[in-house]
Amino acid sequence: MHGTEEQTEEHAPAHEDHGPVRYGPPAPDPGLPVLPELAAVLAAAADRTRPEPPGGGAVLREAARGYWDRRGLHGTAGGIAAAPGAQPLLLALIGAHGGDVLMPRPCPAAWMPQARLLGRPAYHVPTPAECGGVPDPYALLETVRRIRAEGGRPKLLLLSVVDDPTATVAPPELVREACEAAVGEGLHIISDETWRDTVHRPRDTVLLSPAEMCPDDVTVVCDLSGALVPAAWPVAVARFPHTARAAVRHARTLDILTALGAHVAAPVAHAAAHALREPESVRDRIRRAAALQAEVAAGAHRAVLGSGALARPPQAGRHLYADLGPLRPRLAELGVTDSMELEEYLTDRLGAPAPGGHRFGDELGALRVRLGTGPLLGATPQQQTESLAAAKPLELAHVARALDGFAAVFGALR
Fold this sequence. Notes:
The protein is α/β, with parallel strands linked by helices and 414 residues long. It folds into two domains: 41-278, Type I PLP-dependent aspartate aminotransferase-like (Major domain) (Aspartate Aminotransferase, domain 2, 3-Layer(aba) Sandwich), CATH 3.40.640.10; 281-411, Alpha-Beta Complex (Aspartate Aminotransferase, domain 1). It is built from 15 helices and ten strands. The protein has helices spanning 3-8, 36-44, 58-69, 86-96, 111-117, 137-149, 172-184, 210-213, 244-260, 266-276, 280-306, 328-333, 339-350, 381-389, 397-411; strands at 80-83, 100-105, 122-126, 154-159, 188-192, 218-223, 236-239, 310-311, 319-323, 368-372. Strand 8 (310-311) and strand 9 (319-323) form a beta hairpin. Helix 4 (86-96) packs across helix 5, helix 4 packs across helix 9 (244-260) and helix 6 runs parallel beside helix 7. It is globular. The two termini are 18 Å apart. Belongs to the class-I pyridoxal-phosphate-dependent aminotransferase family. Keywords: Aminotransferase, Pyridoxal phosphate, Transferase. It comes from Streptomyces anulatus (Streptomyces chrysomallus). Residues 79-350 form the Aminotransferase class I/classII large domain.
């Protein structure tokens, strides 16, 4: 979808600003009710009055350590930091590092505002044709060279192997090349792995964390709302490398979280620790939710392609990223000429948030949009639960109706 067109776009270090964004787009809606067992755990901790310390208490940090240990990323609970959501955690992590920030184009909507808030120069690097989330290694090296030539200090690279917004999974060889390029240029890497447990077909998908190949140079971040807890219970965790330099950055991160008053609510910390331990009920929900989203996302993807628009096949998460550039003449007739107008048009007709690509670092003139699949799973908790339990969810009446309505919106643009 991006490929050659993206590679030829400007990627000189002059960073861009499409104007102020007054509010950020909501995270993709899971479209599923809270796991009852998790709700019971939260309710049982509702009378806790002692606040969690900055960075999270011992129980939460140990649960996060175990979560990563089961994924081959070994460490200690002392190398974990938690915060009430990904935004304050990322703000603290960027603040704990000096220098300029690089990130792929497109990227999660929260990344650029965090760098701007700290007054850090931030630069987008094009992604390759096959996926988003990880910069093209050659474009990364060229961007670093240009930043330095202009007197900048590139020090930090943000990336996401399982990507929001594109819903793609970067192939291991690309991750390896990009990380080797970054570390070779002295960049520290923050790997956002929020969506790693939402991969649609885990048996067919090879997922390589940058921390597996560059353990001393990668901090891993996970917003637990990706797969483990509801977005209404904000909590995110970071795993630092086991080095002396990382210990200093960990301490700085805790200092910033303290200054922000960014403490995880004690009942939420209790529920998050339970989810991070991954009892069978949690693992089963994760598996079933990913399988359901795979089916519905594939249906939505077919509808988008049927209109003549472009989109990479979604591989994870609960959304897809569409390029409506081929439909530009028809959209222009409807008064839609950029991604901001496209966002308004599709949000109104779909009845669900459809944030434009400008929110993710794409050019305002590009007609790209992130489309959520959660609203297609049902309008009530009963329908959503039925979707989760169905062997063939696309044959359920309420899912079929939702997909038909989704397809009709795009069919009208042919």
